[in-house]
Amino acid sequence: MMSHAEQYDFDTLVSRENTHSVKWDFIPADKDDLLPLWIADMDFVCAQPIIDAMRARVDRRIFGYSMPFTDEYLEAVTGWFRRRANWNIERESIVVAPGIVPALGVLIRALTSEGDGIIIQNPVYYPFSKMIANNGRRLVNNPLINNEGVYTMDFEDLEAKARDPKVTMMLLCNPHNPVGRVWTPEELSTVADICLRNNVLLISDDIHCDLIREDAVYTPVSSLNPSERIITCTSASKTFNLAGLHLSNIVIPDEGMRKLWEAEALGRCGLFGGNAFGIVATQAAYTHGEVWLEQVNRYIADNLRYIGEFVADRLPKARYWYPEGTYFAWIDFREYGYSSEQLEDLMLNRARVALDEGYIFGEEGCGFERINVACPRSILEDCMERMAEALG
Ligand SMILES: Cc1ncc(COP(=O)(O)O)c(C=O)c1O
């Protein structure tokens, strides 16, 4: 067995076939030779302390209903954010859910009314708009500004939209999927100020917070402004590649809002965040996972740098900005002149790569492709070569 002090091998492709992997086993096309770099999980083996903890749990042999709220679990979660982000989370403010997407659904239903406006910043993780629309709320778009590949926020537009009394919530993505910004304290303070002044509840989805580059600094908006009207969604799932274990920690500082959460999540939906393996894995990850995380972040950064070199050499009409956070390359192919449908067809049927098409993140994403680089370099090289060949 590997000791945790050793160097992890992220270069070797570990087969995920027949593991019920959405990315590999449920690819949305006929999958002969289609290379999957789409849905957001990693093709990397887990940190050894997580595997050890899960094995020990398997050896207990009984897997009944489980609850995460022990001192050890709460210390693991709060300690992680205290050490890494200088953010003090009150233990009693943590509620759990089987994922951040279900948590967003519950928050929207519990804390806004039908017909309310909810702000998002397109191009953004597409379940945000689904959760808003499918729960009978109104989507209010405050699009990001794209300055030659570097995205910033349009605060004037945000202020104008937040001023509408029917707009009651904003979903922020920090770091931002897919554009890769890690928002600065100044940007976050301005967002928080606009929301709080206009009585807009701020929900920050920080699921990508640990997957950042060497010189980027993640700031939880709640650490800058410990308001009762800021809720933060966190999870070890993206950081440690545990998405199939379904556990996320949602920080709701206000007791009244926690009661509303409980009434919706448990009372009306029966939604319970007590996955026995998720609990064990999250606790081990946040207690012993830093060595693995440092290594994985270095590997991802190298992959993202490789894309930069490849685009400069081989895809002269594409535009790419080295992202501050997430494991996505967000590449602008608009200069090639294809429609979204043509670009999708070209990637899927000519290049034979399964990526996330830019248009799914909102119309601001048309002409872009999102590539998940959390894979062995050989897979990424194969993907880029296929794309270059298909684009001619
Ligand atoms: C911004 C963001 N939020 C949430 C999720 C998914 O969260 P979960 O699997 O916990 O529902 C993702 C996954 O890619 C994401 O990028």
SSE diagram, text form:
Blueprint: H1 22-25, E1 35-36, H2 48-59, H3 71-85, E2 94-97, H4 100-111, E3 117-120, H5 127-134, E4 138-141, E5 145-147, E6 150-152, H6 155-162, E7 167-173, H7 185-197, E8 201-205, H8 221-224, E9 230-234, H9 236-240, E10 248-251, H10 255-268, H11 276-288, H12 290-314, E11 319-320, E12 328-332, H13 340-351, E13 353-354, E14 356-357, E15 368-372, H14 377-391
Parallel strand pairs: 1-13, 3-4, 3-7, 7-8, 8-9
Antiparallel strand pairs: 2-10, 5-6, 9-10, 11-12, 12-15, 14-15
Helix pairs in contact: 2-11, 3-11, 4-5, 4-10, 6-7, 12-14, 13-14
The protein binds pyridoxal-5'-phosphate.
Pyridoxal-5'-phosphate (PLP) binds next to helix 4.
Summarize the structure.
The protein has 392 residues and is an alpha/beta fold. It is 41% helix and 15% strand. It folds into 2 domains: 22-48 and 290-391, Aspartate Aminotransferase, domain 1; 61-288, Type I PLP-dependent aspartate aminotransferase-like (Major domain) (Aspartate Aminotransferase, domain 2, 3-Layer(aba) Sandwich), CATH 3.40.640.
Structure in words:
- With 392 residues, this protein is of the alpha/beta class.
- The protein has 2 domains: 22-48 and 290-391, Aspartate Aminotransferase, domain 1; 61-288, Aspartate Aminotransferase, domain 2, CATH 3.40.640.
- It contains 14 helices and 15 strands.
- The chain has helices at residues 22-25, 48-59, 71-85, 100-111, 127-134, 155-162, 185-197, 221-224, 236-240, 255-268, 276-288, 290-314, 340-351, 377-391, and strands at residues 35-36, 94-97, 117-120, 138-141, 145-147, 150-152, 167-173, 201-205, 230-234, 248-251, 319-320, 328-332, 353-354, 356-357, 368-372.
- The strands form 4 sheets. It has a 7-stranded mixed β-sheet, sandwiched between helices. A 4-stranded antiparallel β-sheet has the order 11-12-15-14. Strands 1-13 form a two-stranded parallel ribbon.
- α8 links the parallel β8 and β9.
- α3 (71-85) crosses α11.
- The longest helix has 25 residues, at 290-314.
- It is globular, with a radius of gyration of 21 Å.
- The structure holds pyridoxal-5'-phosphate (PLP).
- Pyridoxal-5'-phosphate binds next to α4.
